[in-house]
Structures are given as C-alpha cells and as structure tokens.
Amino acid sequence: MSDVEETSNTKQAQGEAVAIDPLMVKAEPEEGPLGHKLTSIARGASEIEKIAEKIETRRNSRIEVTAAIRVKFLKICREVARSKGIRNKIDVEDLKRLRDDCKARVEANNGENASMKRNFFILFGQWDEDFVLLQLYEKGIENVSQVESNWFHFRDFSFYYTKIVSKRKFFATGTAYAFKWLFLFYLLTAVLFCWIMEERTICPNNDPDRPYLGWLSAIYFASVTMSTVGYGDLSLDPDSTDDRWRVFIATVYMIVSIWVGYTVFAVAADAALSGLSVCSVGDWLTEMYDKMVARDDVSLDEQIRRIRIIRFTELVVLGLFYNLIGIFVARIFIRSSDGEEEDWTWMTTLYWAVQTTTTIGYGDLSMPVDMRWFQIFYTTLGTVLVGSVFGGIASLSQELQDLKRFYAWKRREVSKRLLEDMQGENDDGKIDQYEFLVGSLLVLNKLERSDIDQIMDRFRELAGTKGYIDFQEDTVGEIGLQESQSDDHMETEEVMLDIDDTKQIYM
Q1: Whether the Cβ atoms of residue 57 and residue 143 lie closer than 8 Å to each other
Q2: CA angle, corner 268, sides to 266 and 270, nearest 5?
Q3: CA 422, CA 284: separation in Å to the nearest integer?
Q4: Which of 80, 185, 266, 439 ranks highest by number of CB atoms within 10 Å?
C-alpha cells in the first residue's frame, strides 16, 4: 500500500473528510457486478467521456438537409423496404443501387464550378436534391460497414445523421428573421399613412424641393414608434379628426409596433445571453485579467469581482461605441443645418445620443429634418443596445449563480453525506462514475428530476422486463406490409424532430 493510500485510509477511519486529488488516485481493476470503475485516470479515457466524444463527433458530422429532402429520402427507402416486405430497413445492396443511380444523375448534371454554383444557390433556397441524397446514401453505406451489418435502418439513420436546416440558409438566422419583419413594418407604415390614410401630420408633402419627405417621415415615424423613443415631433392627433376608424387604426398600429420592437429586442437579448453580443470584448478582457492575476487559488469573491468587472466593462464599451456613432454622425447633419434652434453644442449632441440609445426620447430638441435618414437606423440600433444590455444583465446573474454553485460543488470532499447523496441502490459504500455524473448534474442544476423521469420512462419502455437494452438484427423491422402502411403519416410528423437541434429554425 502506498503512502497516499495509507494516509487516506487512516483519515477515513478517524471520520475525517478526504480531499479528492485525481492525479494521486491509482485506478484499480474492475471487480464485482458494478463494472464501472475507472481503468485510467487520464482525461478522456473513462466510459462517460468516450460516450460524450462519440456523440459529439457524430453531432458535428451530420449532413445538412431540408425537411423536403429528408421526407424524400425516407419515402425512397420506404418504397424499397415495402417491395421486399420489410419495414424501416433495407438491404445494403439495395442502398448501394440507390447510391449508384443517384451518383449517375449528379455526374450528368455536373458542369464547370459545380460546387461553387451549388453553394451559391443554396443560400437562396435552391438545393441540389440529388447531390444531398448522394451524400446520405454514401454516409449510410459507411455507417453500415462500421456496425458490420447487412441492413440499413433508414429511420434511425435520418434521426442521428441528418440535421434539418432552413431551405433558405441566408434567412435562417434570428437576426435575418427580425430584420425581415422590421423591413415589412417600415414598408407597410409608408403605405398606410401616405397612400391609404393620407395622414399629413405623419406623411407631409408640402416641400416641393424634397418630394421624398413624405415616405421618409413615415418610415422615421415607424422607427421611433417601434423603438419606443417617441420624440413627439410626428404623431397622429386624435383631436384633429372625427374619423374614429383612423384613431382605431393608429391604436392597432402602436400595438403592432410594440410586437416588432419586441422581436428585435428579443433577438439582441438572445445574442447577448448566448455570448454573441454585438461588441463582445469579454474574451479579451478575461485573458488580460488572467495575466494580471496568474494564480490557481483564486477565491470565489475574486472570481465574482472579475466577472462583474468584465461584463460591466463590456456593456460600457458597447454603449460608448453606439453613442460615439450617434454623436459624430449627428454633428455632420447639425453643421449642414440652417436652423438656429438646431445649432447644437457637443454636449447637446451627447444628450440627444444618450436619450436615443436608451429609447427615452424626451423630444425637447429641434432636429434637422434630413437627419431622419440617420435616425431610422440609429433608433433601431438603440433597441438592439437596450436588448443587449438587458440580455447581458440576465446573463451575468445566471453566470454568477453557476459559478457559486460550481465552486461549492468542486470543494466537496469524500464523506458519508457524499455517499448518501450519490450512491445508488447497491449500497456498497462506493460511487461509480455514472452515479457521480448524475448526482453532480443534479447538484449543479444542469439536470432536473423531471428530465430523469422522462429519460427513465423511455429506458423502461425500450428495456422491458430484461432491465437493459440490446439489439437483435434478426427481429428488428420484420413487420408485415399491412402494419407499415399505417406509418405513412408519421414521416411528416417526425421529419422536423431532431434531438440535437435546440435552436429555432426560421423558415
């Protein structure tokens, strides 16, 4: 017995807690029915880490397909399976024939710069279905050879090895989705107030030198309304008209504008929560701070202080950047303006920029009309800034909670309480790697009890009375055609389900 083991056993016998040092633990051979002991203390060598690496590798190598292509792939494979009187699988030779036929079609259509043209047209929704199907067939053949089987289970394959993306990848992001609605909102505002309602307080046409002033003012009105800046220089005066329907339309318009503003706000907040803020300098600040405080024994208070400083600095830099843009561009319009009331000082310009980016908009300043070109974009950026700030604050709160929880978990030592919390029903006084993983995920709030209940319900369903899940090639999928007919409707229902895709796809 080594000195480390002897000291550890002595402390445990005396009822003392023993700190776990993985570099000083000597792995023991497997024994007993459990069979989940570590065979190596090297990182990445445990069963759990190997499973995680396998799943991560598969996730990163999935083939991108549209929903229509996945449906077509499943229908082709299903027709082959039906012709052979089986279900949900086809012979590998049939799969190779599908591959060869598809390959011939792809080669016949290939010309010069085929790959570049294909990638370009995908951006605008024009997918080469045969090329994607060929990738699926080749990946399927590779998968069958890896598992040393003569059968290709196409439904399982489509679930694990394909990733559904938007048909139009150029518009598949949340930002593109938000700005699509923003553009439509601006366009419909101009149509509504300039041509349908002919509201001249919002869409004036009294300047022959600037015929564009009407629709420019309408879009500007849409921007300040959506962003909740509301300077008050343009508005629908309900007392100036007896038409109640005009007031009603204006009221509905305000509600719609709040929805559009919320969409833009939510996208910005989501980006900040995901660590993808518009001006992310957190990584650089973290690196610089770590160089100044190059210690391993950093206390929890110091870690919290560091995160707060970094996140606060990031938000300040973001706000300063936006306001500087507003100040310098506004100064250009102010210098070219002839109005005496529009002769702003630098301090007045800063005052205007801050009330705009914070969406407060007092409306106590006279602004050049031509500056509305810039304000259309700047008020929208103000909404993005507010969304990023609130998203950053929410992200900071969650980050600090996770840090405190992880810090407390990391300091746990071997004790009776640890065994009681994480040990299963075997009650042998030992915690294996699976018990430690599940217990730690629960303690760290990475996993909820409700998640475990759903997972274990599915395990019991798949395992049955055996108590474990196995796979027997000869009995899987051998179901008559009369049963397979009832599954036609399931393809469309299941095609959008992807266990690895948690982000919303904007179609």
Answers
A1: no
A2: 65
A3: 39
A4: 185
Residues 506/173, Cβ–Cβ less than 8 Å: yes
Per-residue DSSP letters for 80-137?
A: HHHHTT-SS-EEHHHHHHHHHHHHHHHHHH--TTHHHHHHHHHTTT---HHHHHHHHH
* Side chain identity, residue 399: E
Interatomic CA distance for residues 322 and 266, integer angstroms: 19
Residues 6+ apart with CB under 8 A from 73: 65, 133, 136, 154, 158, 162
Characterize the bridge pairing of strands 162-164 and 63-65: parallel
User: How remote is the C-alpha of 119 from its chain's centroid?
Assistant: 23
Count CA within 13 A, CB hemisphere, residue 289.
Answer: 18
Count of Cβ atoms closer than 10 Å to residue 397 Cβ: 11
- Within 10 A of 237 (CB to CB), how many other CB atoms are there? 11
Tokens of 271: 């980006």
Rounded-to-integer distance, Cα 472 and Cα 486, Å: 24
Nearest Cα residue to 92 out of 143, 159, 156: 143
- Using alpha carbons, select from 238, 246, 192 the residue that is nearest to residue 218: 192
In single-letter form, the type of residue at position 395 comes to S
pLDDT score, position 482: 39
What sign has the CA pseudo-torsion 194, 197, 201, 202?
negative
Short-list 124, 125, 69, CA closest to 102: 69
Residues found in the chain: 507
Residue in this structure with the two tokens 């190779």, named with its chain if needed: 96
Please give the biggest Cα pair distance in the chain: 98
What is the Cβ-side half-sphere exposure of residue 309, based on CA atoms within 13 angstroms? 12
Helix ranges (H only) for 411-465 are: 416-422, 433-443, 449-463
Q: List, for the chain, all residue ranges whose pLDDT scores fall below the cut of 70.
A: 1-35, 111-113, 122-124, 169-173, 237-242, 268-297, 426-427, 472-507
Gap between the Cα atoms of 147 and 139, Å rounded: 13
